[in-house]
Amino acid sequence: MEEKLVDINVMGKLYQVPEGLTIMTAMEWIGYKFTRGCGCRGGFCGACGTFYRLPGNYKLQVGLACSTKIIPSMYLTQIPYFPSQKALYDLDEIENPVKALLELYPEIKKCVGCGACVKACPQNLRPIDYIAAALRGDWKEAAELSFDCIMCGLCASRCTGELVPYNIALFVRRYFSKSVRPKPKHIIDRNKEIREGMFDEAVKALASLSEEELKKKYDLREFEKL
User: Fold this and answer.
1) Fold of domain 91-180
2) Contact 120, 155 (CB under 8 A)
Protein backbone atom coordinates (compact mmCIF):
# COMPACT_ATOMS: atom_id res chain seq x y z
CA MET A 1 0.00 0.00 0.00
CA GLU A 2 1.46 3.34 -1.05
CA GLU A 3 2.06 5.97 1.60
CA LYS A 4 -0.33 8.90 1.21
CA LEU A 5 1.43 12.24 0.78
CA VAL A 6 -0.01 15.64 1.65
CA ASP A 7 1.12 19.17 0.82
CA ILE A 8 2.57 21.54 3.42
CA ASN A 9 4.25 24.91 2.97
CA VAL A 10 7.46 25.54 4.91
CA MET A 11 9.24 28.90 4.66
CA GLY A 12 7.33 29.65 1.45
CA LYS A 13 8.22 26.38 -0.27
CA LEU A 14 5.81 23.56 -1.08
CA TYR A 15 6.65 20.05 0.11
CA GLN A 16 4.90 16.70 0.11
CA VAL A 17 5.18 14.65 3.29
CA PRO A 18 3.60 11.43 4.59
CA GLU A 19 0.19 11.90 6.15
CA GLY A 20 -0.01 11.63 9.94
CA LEU A 21 3.39 13.08 10.84
CA THR A 22 3.78 15.73 13.50
CA ILE A 23 5.03 19.15 12.45
CA MET A 24 8.46 18.33 13.85
CA THR A 25 8.84 14.95 12.18
CA ALA A 26 7.48 16.36 8.90
CA MET A 27 10.15 19.07 8.89
CA GLU A 28 12.83 16.49 9.61
CA TRP A 29 11.43 14.27 6.85
CA ILE A 30 11.95 17.04 4.27
CA GLY A 31 15.50 17.66 5.46
CA TYR A 32 15.44 20.17 8.30
CA LYS A 33 17.77 19.38 11.19
CA PHE A 34 16.90 20.72 14.63
CA THR A 35 19.85 21.87 16.70
CA ARG A 36 17.70 23.61 19.31
CA GLY A 37 14.02 24.13 20.05
CA CYS A 38 13.16 20.43 19.81
CA GLY A 39 13.27 19.69 23.54
CA CYS A 40 11.71 16.53 24.94
CA ARG A 41 9.63 15.58 21.87
CA GLY A 42 6.92 14.45 24.25
CA GLY A 43 4.76 17.53 24.76
CA PHE A 44 6.11 18.38 28.21
CA CYS A 45 8.95 20.90 27.96
CA GLY A 46 7.33 23.57 25.78
CA ALA A 47 10.44 24.20 23.69
CA CYS A 48 8.68 23.74 20.34
CA GLY A 49 5.78 26.19 20.56
CA THR A 50 4.68 26.82 16.98
CA PHE A 51 2.48 29.14 14.95
CA TYR A 52 0.91 28.10 11.66
CA ARG A 53 -1.81 29.21 9.28
CA LEU A 54 -4.38 27.28 7.28
CA PRO A 55 -5.62 28.05 3.76
CA GLY A 56 -8.43 30.59 3.67
CA ASN A 57 -8.05 31.43 7.35
CA TYR A 58 -6.20 34.57 8.43
CA LYS A 59 -6.04 33.49 12.09
CA LEU A 60 -2.81 32.25 13.61
CA GLN A 61 -3.08 28.71 14.92
CA VAL A 62 -0.87 27.45 17.75
CA GLY A 63 0.47 24.12 18.89
CA LEU A 64 3.52 22.15 19.94
CA ALA A 65 5.50 20.96 16.93
CA CYS A 66 6.27 17.62 18.59
CA SER A 67 2.62 16.69 19.12
CA THR A 68 0.58 18.68 16.58
CA LYS A 69 -0.21 16.62 13.48
CA ILE A 70 0.28 18.23 10.09
CA ILE A 71 -2.79 19.52 8.29
CA PRO A 72 -2.88 19.44 4.47
CA SER A 73 -1.77 22.75 2.91
CA MET A 74 -0.82 24.29 6.26
CA TYR A 75 1.70 27.15 6.25
CA LEU A 76 4.75 27.06 8.52
CA THR A 77 7.29 29.85 8.79
CA GLN A 78 9.99 31.05 11.13
CA ILE A 79 9.01 33.66 13.71
CA PRO A 80 11.26 36.01 15.69
CA TYR A 81 12.22 35.38 19.27
CA PHE A 82 9.84 36.86 21.83
CA PRO A 83 11.64 38.58 24.74
CA SER A 84 10.84 37.10 28.14
CA GLN A 85 12.92 38.87 30.74
CA LYS A 86 12.74 36.89 33.98
CA ALA A 87 13.05 38.94 37.15
CA LEU A 88 15.56 37.99 39.82
CA TYR A 89 14.33 37.64 43.39
CA ASP A 90 15.01 35.94 46.71
CA LEU A 91 11.88 34.31 48.12
CA ASP A 92 13.28 34.54 51.65
CA GLU A 93 13.29 38.33 51.40
CA ILE A 94 9.70 38.71 50.18
CA GLU A 95 7.32 39.95 52.88
CA ASN A 96 4.43 41.19 50.74
CA PRO A 97 4.12 38.86 47.71
CA VAL A 98 1.48 40.90 45.85
CA LYS A 99 3.61 44.04 46.17
CA ALA A 100 6.67 42.05 45.08
CA LEU A 101 4.81 40.68 42.06
CA LEU A 102 3.85 44.21 40.97
CA GLU A 103 7.42 45.41 41.42
CA LEU A 104 9.02 42.45 39.66
CA TYR A 105 6.56 42.42 36.78
CA PRO A 106 5.01 45.94 36.59
CA GLU A 107 3.61 45.19 33.14
CA ILE A 108 1.06 42.96 34.88
CA LYS A 109 -1.01 46.14 35.42
CA LYS A 110 -1.44 46.41 31.65
CA CYS A 111 -3.49 43.21 31.44
CA VAL A 112 -6.96 44.10 30.12
CA GLY A 113 -8.34 40.57 30.20
CA CYS A 114 -8.59 40.31 26.41
CA GLY A 115 -8.07 36.54 26.45
CA ALA A 116 -5.43 36.40 23.70
CA CYS A 117 -3.21 34.34 25.99
CA VAL A 118 -6.05 31.86 26.57
CA LYS A 119 -6.50 31.29 22.84
CA ALA A 120 -2.76 30.75 22.39
CA CYS A 121 -2.25 28.19 25.16
CA PRO A 122 -1.73 24.62 23.86
CA GLN A 123 -2.45 23.33 27.38
CA ASN A 124 -5.89 24.98 27.44
CA LEU A 125 -4.95 27.05 30.48
CA ARG A 126 -6.34 30.48 31.30
CA PRO A 127 -3.41 32.76 32.16
CA ILE A 128 -5.75 35.70 32.80
CA ASP A 129 -7.37 33.68 35.59
CA TYR A 130 -4.19 32.69 37.41
CA ILE A 131 -2.83 36.23 37.07
CA ALA A 132 -6.04 37.61 38.59
CA ALA A 133 -5.83 35.06 41.42
CA ALA A 134 -2.24 36.09 42.16
CA LEU A 135 -3.14 39.79 42.24
CA ARG A 136 -5.82 39.16 44.85
CA GLY A 137 -3.41 37.04 46.90
CA ASP A 138 -5.03 33.65 46.28
CA TRP A 139 -1.75 31.79 45.83
CA LYS A 140 -3.25 28.32 46.10
CA GLU A 141 -5.70 28.92 43.26
CA ALA A 142 -3.08 30.70 41.15
CA ALA A 143 -0.64 27.82 41.61
CA GLU A 144 -3.25 25.20 40.77
CA LEU A 145 -4.52 27.08 37.70
CA SER A 146 -0.99 27.44 36.32
CA PHE A 147 0.30 24.00 37.36
CA ASP A 148 0.20 22.50 33.84
CA CYS A 149 2.07 25.41 32.24
CA ILE A 150 4.97 24.10 30.14
CA MET A 151 6.48 27.57 29.52
CA CYS A 152 6.25 27.32 25.74
CA GLY A 153 5.93 31.11 25.47
CA LEU A 154 2.98 31.21 23.08
CA CYS A 155 0.95 33.25 25.57
CA ALA A 156 3.67 35.92 25.72
CA SER A 157 3.81 36.12 21.95
CA ARG A 158 0.14 37.09 21.77
CA CYS A 159 -0.12 39.41 24.78
CA THR A 160 -0.93 42.99 23.79
CA GLY A 161 0.18 44.21 27.22
CA GLU A 162 3.64 42.65 26.80
CA LEU A 163 3.19 40.37 29.80
CA VAL A 164 5.07 37.10 30.09
CA PRO A 165 2.42 35.02 31.88
CA TYR A 166 4.58 31.93 32.35
CA ASN A 167 7.22 33.88 34.31
CA ILE A 168 4.46 35.22 36.54
CA ALA A 169 3.16 31.66 36.97
CA LEU A 170 6.64 30.49 37.92
CA PHE A 171 6.87 33.14 40.65
CA VAL A 172 3.41 32.14 41.89
CA ARG A 173 4.22 28.43 42.20
CA ARG A 174 7.59 29.10 43.80
CA TYR A 175 6.10 31.43 46.40
CA PHE A 176 3.21 29.06 47.08
CA SER A 177 5.54 26.10 47.60
CA LYS A 178 7.96 28.09 49.75
CA SER A 179 5.64 30.11 51.96
CA VAL A 180 2.03 28.92 51.73
CA ARG A 181 1.85 25.19 51.17
CA PRO A 182 2.29 23.03 54.31
CA LYS A 183 5.81 21.62 54.50
CA PRO A 184 5.90 17.85 53.70
CA LYS A 185 7.52 16.12 56.68
CA HIS A 186 8.88 13.19 54.67
CA ILE A 187 10.84 15.53 52.38
CA ILE A 188 12.18 17.54 55.33
CA ASP A 189 13.30 14.30 56.99
CA ARG A 190 14.95 13.02 53.81
CA ASN A 191 16.81 16.31 53.27
CA LYS A 192 18.11 16.05 56.84
CA GLU A 193 19.32 12.49 56.17
CA ILE A 194 21.10 13.63 52.99
CA ARG A 195 22.84 16.51 54.79
CA GLU A 196 23.96 14.13 57.54
CA GLY A 197 25.63 11.89 54.95
CA MET A 198 23.34 8.87 55.22
CA PHE A 199 23.57 8.22 51.46
CA ASP A 200 27.19 9.19 50.80
CA GLU A 201 28.41 5.60 50.49
CA ALA A 202 25.52 4.63 48.22
CA VAL A 203 26.25 7.58 45.92
CA LYS A 204 29.96 6.68 45.79
CA ALA A 205 29.05 3.10 44.91
CA LEU A 206 26.83 4.27 42.04
CA ALA A 207 29.52 6.66 40.79
CA SER A 208 31.98 3.77 40.54
CA LEU A 209 29.74 1.71 38.22
CA SER A 210 30.20 1.55 34.47
CA GLU A 211 27.52 2.81 32.09
CA GLU A 212 26.33 -0.73 31.37
CA GLU A 213 26.15 -1.56 35.08
CA LEU A 214 24.16 1.60 35.73
CA LYS A 215 21.71 0.76 32.95
CA LYS A 216 21.22 -2.74 34.36
CA LYS A 217 20.69 -1.40 37.86
CA TYR A 218 18.23 1.17 36.52
CA ASP A 219 16.21 -1.49 34.69
CA LEU A 220 16.03 -3.63 37.85
CA ARG A 221 15.07 -0.78 40.19
CA GLU A 222 12.08 -1.09 42.49
CA PHE A 223 9.06 1.02 41.64
CA GLU A 224 7.25 2.92 44.34
CA LYS A 225 3.80 1.50 44.97
CA LEU A 226 1.07 4.13 44.76
Assistant:
1) Fumarate Reductase Iron-sulfur Protein; Chain B, domain 2 (1.10.1060)
2) yes
